[in-house]
Amino acid sequence: MTNSSLQNAATQAIEYAKTRGATAADVEASTSVGQNITVRLDEVETIEHNRDKGLGITVYLGQQRGNASTTDMSRAAIERTVDAALAIAKYTAADEFAGLPEASALARGPFASLNLYHPWQPSIDEAVKLCREMEAAAFAADQRIDNSEGATLSTYESDFIYANSLGFVGGYATTRHSASVTVIATADSGMQRDYWYSMARDRHDLESPDAIGLRAGQRAAARLNSRRAATGEYPVIFDATASPGLIGAFVSAVSGSSLYRKSSFLLDSLGTQVFAKGVSIFEDPFLAKGLASGPFDGEGVTTSARDVVKEGVLQGYFLATYSARKLGLKSTGNAGGNHNLIVSHDGLSLSDLFRKMGRGLYVTETMGHGGNSVTGDYSLGAAGFWIEDGAIAYPVEEITIASNLRDMFKGIVNIGNDALPYSSKRVGSILIDKMSIAGE
User: Fold this and answer.
1) C-alpha separations of 51 from 232, 280, 285, 377 in Å
2) Span 263-310, pLDDT tens digits
3) Which residues contact 426 (CB under 8 A, 6 or more apart)?
4) What beta strand segments (E) does 115-271 contain?
5) Do 3-32+48-105 and 124-222 have matching folds?
6) Orientation of helix 75-90 relative to helix 3-19, angle to 10°
7) Whole-angstrom distance, CA of residue 165 vs CA of residue 21
8) Angle between the N-to-C axes of helices 209-222 and 124-141, in degrees from 0 to 180, rounded to the nearest 10
9) What is each CA distance from 236 to 40, 240, 355, 412, 422, in whole angstroms?
């Protein structure tokens, strides 16, 4: 379907809902197409194509809410879907905070192009060739790489329209492409697996197959002959693949649903010191080619570039319309989640962080759920490397790291300049002053 067809479908749904008595309604209609190719041990393992479309509508009868969805965008199917949503709304309890955003909060077009659409549909032969190159580079990285869990190339593009009965209509096309490989290294001490990947809106921004394979192979081989670290309290570095998880825990703690349910360890923390003084976090919805960019959120509310944390002090929450009303605040344009978060760094490389730490744990992988959102207590299985005299001494595994997220955030000593551009949370390796390590 074309963007105009999606817009027509969304408009039909809203107009029909009005004729059936809805006091308000909003609709999202979308289409997507994707391809996934996996090669394992030089043989094609899977070839997947997907093509999807769908329409979801939410209707309001006063402050009673109902929603329904369909994958059939014919007029008859849309009308049946609206009727289903209305039937649900009749049986739901009225919620004083339910409803569309205020009209004044909605984004107004024309919307700036954020360079989010770069379609790429490689042939099967081309995709297989790229996967084979990734896997071959991983095997060539170290002679101890002797098995593979596969190399995968994924391409994806989508288009959507969001519209509501306040007159808002907006949408745009996006793409997302990724390449990854996972391999296994073997030594007398046992086997270790690791991976590497790259993701981007534009295929030309992906790392090369050789670079992805080399990194995966090196990471797997480096973990051979792992042992358990000594139990105690030591400094810890979370590498740039693990550190976004810490920022994710922060986002969850200062997001609307956690706050109005009073299930956050950062409740009532606006304007207070939640990170070490040198840490700042900037939200940029307008980052060109950003994986979490957009001129409006999932409710049509305009987005804005803003300081979320400045010099360690919390400047704002992540709120959608409903949670904002529950808290007596205004939406921050975050229905659907955070936009690109840019975390400040100290200009230090990972090697610089090793030297700064001197002795401690470098975490490259975590296992388990992690933090308790209510108390902030944090405990995870971990693997990585032990650092002695500012350099890697040996790989470690089967250990547990523990602390409290409040203490961890305030205990950040430095943040490295090695952030990966593959996440909505761009943060480098994080050095924390101390955590409890349970090992030998």
Assistant:
1) 52, 40, 28, 42
2) 999 999 999 999 999 999 999 999 999 999 999 999 999 999 999 999
3) 340, 341, 342, 343, 419, 420
4) 145-164, 169-170, 173-187, 190-200, 232-238
5) yes
6) 40
7) 12
8) 40
9) 35, 13, 12, 10, 23
Tokens 């921004």 sit at which residue? 205
- The token duo for 143 is 């002679």
The domains of the chain are located at 3-32+48-105, 124-222, 226-440
Of the candidates 429, 240, 249, 275, which has an alpha carbon nearest to the alpha carbon of residue 338? 249
CATH number for the segment(s) 124-222 = 3.30.2290.10
Task: Give yes or no for a contact between 29 and 4, defined as CB atoms under 8 angstroms apart.
Answer: no
Q: Report the amino acid identity of residue 425.
A: K
Amino acid found at 278: G
Tokens of 48: 């997947």
Q: How confident is the model at residue 120 (pLDDT cuts 50, 70, 90)?
A: very high
User: Strand pairing of 64-70 and 169-170?
Assistant: unpaired
What single DSSP character describes residue 103? G
Q: In which residue are the tokens 């761009």 written?
A: 426
Q: Say if strands 425-426 and 340-343 run parallel, antiparallel, or are unpaired.
A: parallel
Two tokens at 4?
């105009």
Cα 246 from Cα 62, distance rounded (Å)? 40
- Angstrom distance (rounded) from CA 68 to CA 198: 36
Fold annotation for 3-32+48-105: PmbA/TldD fold (3.30.2290)
pTM of the model: 0.95
